[in-house]
């Protein structure tokens, strides 16, 4: 199935993994909806993709922790196209901290964006996806949500909720022809790792079988596959893209 004419919405697409996914989908011929938290945050990406690939782009903004913002974004998609073919639920936040040391506000924010926000995004997108062609959803969880690590318990719990959401949604939406899968990245070279000093970075590299950090484009390649017809019999799966951090 060619990607030309397919409409994809990528949340959190102004930077990092989300931006790389948007760039890959633009190269594959998708029409795109790009999202940033604040107005104008995704405009630079939109201009780049339009210039490079001639991509038709709609930019939206809003707080993924706010259900009303999410509904407003999907309303804009409905007003323009009346359907959606692909949804990438990528927007998320990260904060590390030992149990007993995380603030109440940090715990609440991690779950509000990563778990509850992903759920509201999925709920709001389902009606438009039912109108789409070969509809598919990819959610971004984390190796911390599937296997855990010290100092990552709260973040990992918020991402484990995404894995559970993926499996349940795949069972529920399969009858409607909607496929739902998730990617669990390992350590990827994005600004989410900016808090690591060189020693911390080398420690993560040493723990990875391939001996390096991942690149956002490597996550994007797997997302593009899962959204494509090449994965037409793949649903309910959590795909680890971690360079052998977990084997």
Structure description:
Residues 6-186 form the Ketoreductase domain. Belongs to the short-chain dehydrogenases/reductases (SDR) family. With 247 residues, the chain is an alpha/beta fold. It has one domain (7-241): NAD(P)-binding Rossmann-like Domain (Rossmann fold, 3-Layer(aba) Sandwich), CATH 3.40.50.720. It has eight helices and seven strands. The protein has helices spanning 16-27, 43-53, 67-81, 104-130, 143-146, 153-173, 198-207, 216-227; strands at residues 7-10, 31-36, 57-61, 86-89, 136-140, 179-185, 238-241. Strands 3-2-1-4-5-6-7 form a seven-stranded parallel beta sheet, with helices on both faces. Helix 1 links the parallel strand 1 and strand 2. Helix 1 packs across helix 8 (216-227), helix 3 (67-81) packs parallel to helix 4 (104-130) and helix 4 runs parallel beside helix 6. The longest helix is centred in the middle third of the chain and has 27 residues, at 104-130. The protein is globular, with a radius of gyration of 17 Å. The model has no long low-confidence stretch (mean pLDDT 94).
């Amino acid at each position: 199935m060619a990607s030309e004419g397919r409409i994809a919405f990528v949340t959190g697409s102004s930077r990092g993994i989300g931006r790389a996914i948007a760039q890959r989908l633009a190269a594959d011929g998708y029409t795109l909806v790009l999202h940033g938290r604040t107005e104008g945050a995704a405009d630079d990406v939109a201009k780049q993709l339009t210039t490079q690939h001639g991509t038709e782009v709609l930019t939206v903004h809003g707080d993924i922790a706010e259900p009303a913002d999410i509904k407003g974004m999907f309303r804009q998609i409905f007003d323009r196209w009346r359907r959606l073919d692909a949804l990438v639920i990528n927007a998320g936040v990260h904060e590390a901290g030992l149990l007993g040391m995380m603030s109440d506000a940090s715990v609440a924010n991690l779950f509000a964006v990563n778990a509850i926000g992903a759920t509201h995004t999925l709920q709001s997108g389902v009606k438009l996806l039912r109108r789409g062609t070969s509809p598919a959803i990819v959610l971004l969880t984390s190796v911390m949500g599937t296997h855990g690590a010290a100092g990552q318990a709260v973040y990992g719990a918020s991402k484990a909720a995404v894995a559970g959401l993926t499996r349940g949604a795949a069972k529920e939406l399969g009858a409607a022809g909607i496929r739902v899968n998730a990617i669990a990245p390992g350590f990827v070279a994005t600004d989410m790792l900016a808090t690591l000093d060189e020693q911390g970075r080398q420690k993560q590299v040493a723990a990875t079988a391939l001996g390096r950090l991942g690149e956002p484009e490597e996550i994007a390649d797997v997302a593009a596959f899962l959204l494509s017809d090449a994965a037409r019999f793949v649903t309910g799966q959590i795909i680890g893209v971690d360079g052998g951090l977990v084997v």
